[in-house]
Design brief:
With 568 residues, the chain is α+β, with helices and mostly antiparallel strands. The protein has three domains: 241 residues, 2-Layer Sandwich (BirA Bifunctional Protein, domain 2); 130 residues, YbaK/aminoacyl-tRNA synthetase-associated domain (YbaK protein); 97 residues, Anticodon-binding domain (Rossmann fold, 3-Layer(aba) Sandwich). It is 28% helix and 28% strand. The strands form eight sheets. Strands 3, 7, 8, 9, 10, 11, 12, 21 and 24 form a nine-stranded mixed beta sheet that branches. Helix 1 crosses helix 13. The structure holds zinc ion.
Length: 568
């Protein structure tokens, strides 16, 4: 390919609409253009990268006994009604009607579709395990699509579904996919971590997220520097912190005028924040009030809380709803709320002694609160959000925190969908059983964006070689100089013949413009053909990632280029 023929309209300025670096750089590098909010056209450079990622994914899915299929994007409502998800999926589902007024959706995911596909064909345990996958567009009607390809309304996903005869088989399929995902992200040249994850709305027992590490990422992950424990902050388990033994004093009220935050209370009563109990009030999707209590210096993990009370969604409670429980906003306590009010207390709070908590009265707190004695009837569990330095749940070492972008996720589903959709088979004893499932997704377009979030500098993108739109670019410094251009053509042909995915920048632009574009688009290797090449045969190789240059002889530049690319 020659740059003069390549449709890659680069921009000098960053478009105002772009907030994150991957979005900015993809627009500037002429890789994508916006069609509508969260909907993009992929131009040739982006499409080349996407196809490379897809190819790696495809090879690893095939190697793990996956079989590729293509299911429809347009899905009838009735299969979603069978599982009940038509009603609960909410506003994020793109819904459409056909001319006969029948309901359809644009697939946000394919559990219903694939399960109804196999329920009609799979009859016997002999047909299992079965692993089916596809790579196609998915749809989600984001309320506020943003961050370019990071949170679009149309995006490319690989999704694989496994069907097994029992739980042991499902766990084997899960492990196979876990290993395949590890190979996919390794082959893509990305720094990543598989982390234990919350299953969210999809249900099931096991889940890992494959997180591409990037400081700009939306996911917080914790990891242990000593053992291999790693988890999303939503999932990270925490051990109860035992409070030191002390003599229990009787519960008492204390006036705390104007102290409506934990810091003010601690200050006013001259106690450390670790001796205070913080309350946060939520309302579920059914408007039920949930009062959550954590230590003053801790935060509530809303995902854990949501799971603990079996809610689908939580929002901050309105003052009127808090008062209806007998609670006082800003001064809440489990002591004195109406019977039947849902109270969830973090396990670490339950171990506290002689602490400070609200008294359900404005400007009043309780002192000498010992929850094990004073908080009767509360649900006690781990609802605390992890923070850096918390002990590793496996080995106790202080945890470290980093950020990343979730690019893949593996789940076990069990029989949730097969039972709802009556997808059964006959086992070895002729007994009818539901298929045992798992599902495994990779955001293909998201992986491209994540790679840019991980690899960039002030000049542009730094691609790993495996997924760069081109591995190398040959740049004649002055393409108007026939000797330089013809030497560049020769080098380009030689590299191409050697199997390198190479581009020739044959534009009659100034060298500076071509160098800037090469850095912006981020080809891992630049081969420069200048006057020195014509005069004395010196060919310059420059590595995008490090900026390092080396001069080669015509007889060894090719071997050197190949060797360098191996490392990029
Ligand atoms: Zn550890």
């Amino acid at each position: 390919m020659r740059t003069s023929q390549l449709y890659a309209p680069t921009l000098r300025e960053t478009p105002a609409e772009a907030e994150v670096v991957s979005h900015k750089l993809m627009l500037r590098a002429g890789m994508i253009r916006k069609a509508a909010g969260g909907v993009y056209t992929y131009l040739p450079l982006a499409w080349r990268t996407l196809r490379k990622i897809e190819q790696i994914v495809r090879e690893e899915m095939d190697a793990a006994d996956g079989q590729e299929i293509a299911m429809p994007i347009l899905q009838p409502a009735d299969i979603w009604q069978e599982t009940g998800r038509w009603a609960v999926y909410g506003e994020e589902m793109f819904r459409v009607k056909d001319r006969h007024d029948r309901d359809f959706c644009l697939g946000p995911t394919h559990e219903e579709m694939v399960t109804t596909l196999v329920r009609d064909e799979v009859r016997s345990y002999k047909q299992l395990p079965l692993l089916l996958y596809q790579i196609q567009n998915k749809y989600r009607d984001e309320i506020r699509p943003r961050f370019g390809l990071m949170r679009g309304r149309e995006f490319i996903m690989k999704d694989l579904y496994s069907f097994d005869k029992d739980e042991a088989g499902m766990n084997e399929s899960y492990q196979k996919m876990y290993d395949a995902y590890t190979r996919v992200f390794t082959r893509c040249g990305l720094k990543f971590r598989p982390v234990e994850a919350d299953n969210g709305a999809i249900g099931g027992a096991h889940s890992h997220e494959f997180t591409v590490l990037a400081e700009s990422g939306e996911s917080n992950i914790v990891y242990c520097p000593k053992c291999d424990y790693a988890a999303s902050d939503e999932k990270a388990e925490l051990k109860t912190i035992e409070a030191p033994a002390e003599e229990l004093r009787p519960l008492e009220k204390a006036a705390t005028p104007g102290a409506h935050t934990i810091e003010l209370v601690a200050d006013y009563l001259r106690v450390p924040v670790e001796k205070t109990i913080k309350a946060v009030a939520y309302q579920t999707e059914k408007d039920e009030v949930v009062l959550a209590f954590v230590r003053g210096d801790h935060e509530v993990n809303e995902v854990k809380l949501q799971n603990a009370v079996g809610a689908i969604a939580l929002r901050m409670a309105e003052d009127a709803a808090i008062r209806a429980t007998g609670g006082e906003p800003g001064f809440m306590s489990p002591i004195g709320v109406k019977e039947g009010t849902k109270v969830v207390v973090d396990a670490t709070v339950m171990a506290m002694k002689n602490a400070v908590a609200g008294a359900n009265e404005a400007d009043v707190h309780y002192i000498n609160v010992t929850p094990a004695r004073d908080f009767a009837g509360a649900l006690v569990t781990d609802i605390r959000l992890v923070k850096e330095g918390d002990p590793c749940p496996r080995c106790g070492e202080p945890l470290k925190m980093t950020r990343g972008i979730e690019a893949g996720q593996v789940f076990t589903l069990g029989t949730k969908y097969s039972e709802a959709l009556h997808a059964t088979f006959l086992d070895e004893n002729g007994k009818e059983k539901p298929l045992v499932m798992g599902c495994y997704g990779i955001g293909v377009s998201r992986t491209m964006a994540a790679a840019i979030e991980q690899g960039n500098d002030k000049d542009g993108i730094i691609w790993p070689r495996a997924i760069a739109p081109f591995e190398a670019v040959v740049v004649p410094v002055n393409a108007k100089e026939p000797a330089q251009l013809s030497l560049a053509e020769k080098v380009y042909e030689e590299m191409k013949a050697a199997g390198i995915d190479v581009l020739l920048d044959d534009r009659k632009e100034r060298a500076g413009v071509k160098f800037k574009d090469a850095d912006l688009i981020g080809y891992p290797l630049r081969v420069t053909i200048g006057p020195k090449a014509v005069e004395s045969g010196v060919i310059e190789l420059r590595v995008r990632r490090t900026g390092e240059k080396e001069e080669c002889r015509p007889e060894d530049y090719l071997a050197r280029a190949k060797a360098l690319l191996e490392t990029l």
